[in-house]
Fold this sequence. Notes:
By secondary structure, the chain is of the alpha/beta class. The protein is built from seven helices and eight strands.
Amino acid sequence: MFITLGQYRLNCYLPENKEVKQVVYLHTAAGEAESVWKLTDQNFALVSIEGIDWNRELSPWPHEKVFAGGEAFAGGAADYLETLTGQLIPAAEQAFLLIPEKRYLAGYSLGALFAVYAVYHTSLFDGIGSISGSLWYSGFSAYVKEHTVRRNPDKIYFSLGDKEAASARGIMQTVFVRTRQIEEKFRKDGIHTILEMNRGNHFKQVPERIAKGIRWLLS
């Protein structure tokens, strides 16, 4: 089932008994959520959000482009987070009859960067899944070090592919070091964290990696 709000499409996957205590909100490539759902225990609700302008809405501040044929990053995460928490999530929970005890925010790539960014600006989420996150993003590890989250989430899951730091793009070669620094900072702050390594580069087994992270968050 799904609903649309403006440019956004929210897809909801529910357990057979429709009893939902936990909801995972997910930002990943369009069409991947169903594959993710099939790889989980399906004892929660999964709500995927499509229609995102990734480089604009999921980036925390402006950043130059990293690929020759790509786009610059506009830094619209603050505005999009307000839309997500103030409009999209309330609409989803009303439309899909969700009254969760726990909410989680997970994402892949820039969606994973946005998920970590979100805990500094909202207390809505009880756990975060940052899967192959763009934590190479300039200034983000310093931001984590220098700022305080709204409230400590119960858990934060990090994962990377073991070949992601071998990128030809210099800045992306820092992804493992910066992800480890960020994970260690949260762990030292008393949050239950893990950093898991998967085989392959950034584009390897994406649904499997996301499902693995969700299973850890909900365990």
